[in-house]
């Protein structure tokens, strides 16, 4: 087995003695879980559930609408009771598992009603109804990162669905701005202690918010590869009011809560917002200079994230930031792709920059080790 | 306090779904029933489950061009297989008013070479077991949709059937 091989290797290397290896082996055996047994039982349950679903689906037309709705309400009630029970007993996995089931059942219920009453309309209406119904449950009963991820992703998807269906009038621009503010609002809410049951849920929300903001700003940076005229920039400025306010609130709440290192807050809230705003709301032509400025802003944003991550010991984020800069540098090659001479120049520039970046990374890691 | 809030939050989805059932049932209970001739133009939309798309085969009075963008109000008239809709202003006195946006009726110009004018298309959910049969019927014989028009202007497609049947 893999553990035995490693233990033998460590004994041979003189890292541990035979008695320690035996104690480690005994500890691991004690902690061993019957995964194969669970997998077989899980497969059986899955087959059972799929079989029941297929039987119901085959006779769907013959089942009275009232019965369908009644059974669905019973299922909703059962999932609700399970969440209540889980919260009451302090069993967070029961509570959060039941929140997941409740979320799925509520979504299925909305679809069922759409089918029975032949309700038509854009998808966002159904998603928004789900969000309204499930948000109080998630924010009051959620306690694990997993449920935070589930609710946060559904919230951002629902807001994005609403935004894409809006017209570009003033009302539409404000709604689109509200949707764009989603990640920053998640971060801001995650610093409120009343949200969720315990810190894990809020950390999950915050992570999704940070990913949304940094990812959004990185995607927005492609705006530099296209021209933005004054009218488009004006519309975007209106959209960006709410995201800017939300980012500011998130930053300040973060500073007050002290849950995230202060050095991380600015690069994870305001700086991506500013970088995104510059790419989308600053009028610019589709030119070499614009692309160059865009690449510099992108590299600066991720560079500041990398610096803060390095200072705070967030090594995963540090690696992601360096990788983002490396990818952007590599794109320089494609931007210079053209004649043999410019392709060669592109390869040389991109290569040198990547080697420089790798050297810088190595130096930072060494400095960290000596510190 | 937090337990009371939690209880209220937990009951909210259940209450919300029940309220939605009540609202839909109440709207449909006072709705008027219509038989509208339809023609199929597109098979089922695979992205949205078992939906059959069709066009209302009604006579249109007035210019339907504004309906394409923001939707419009149609005044539904007619009987015994002949159905007419008049493009109307919201203020117009109309007993059977269809709100195309609320009814999710898609309005588009008919392609060149056809009878011209505008096509009013909609869709209806059908069970898996009947989907293929209905799709075939729409392409081969006259069909009608039995629809209910709620007081707030929503035209709800109830079922598709052959035009020859007369129980409705």
* Contiguous uncertain segments of 5+ residues of chain A: none
Poorly predicted runs of chain B are: 44-48
The number of helical runs of chain B is 2
Oligomeric assembly: heterodimer
Helix and strand content put the structural class of chain B at: alpha+beta
The radius of gyration computed from the alpha-carbon positions of chain B, rounded to a whole number of angstroms, is 19 Å
Strand order across the biggest sheet of chain B?
7-8-2-1-9-10
Continuous helix count of chain A: 17
Largest sheet: number of strands, sense, barrel closure of chain A: none
Average residue-wise pLDDT of chain A: 88
Tertiary shape of chain B: globular
Distance between the termini of chain B: 55 Å
The percent range for strand residues of chain B is 35-45%
- What is the share of helical residues of chain B? 10-25%
**What is the overall silhouette of chain A?**
globular
* Helical fraction of chain A: over 70%
The assigned structural class of chain A equals mainly alpha
Relative strand content of chain A? under 5%
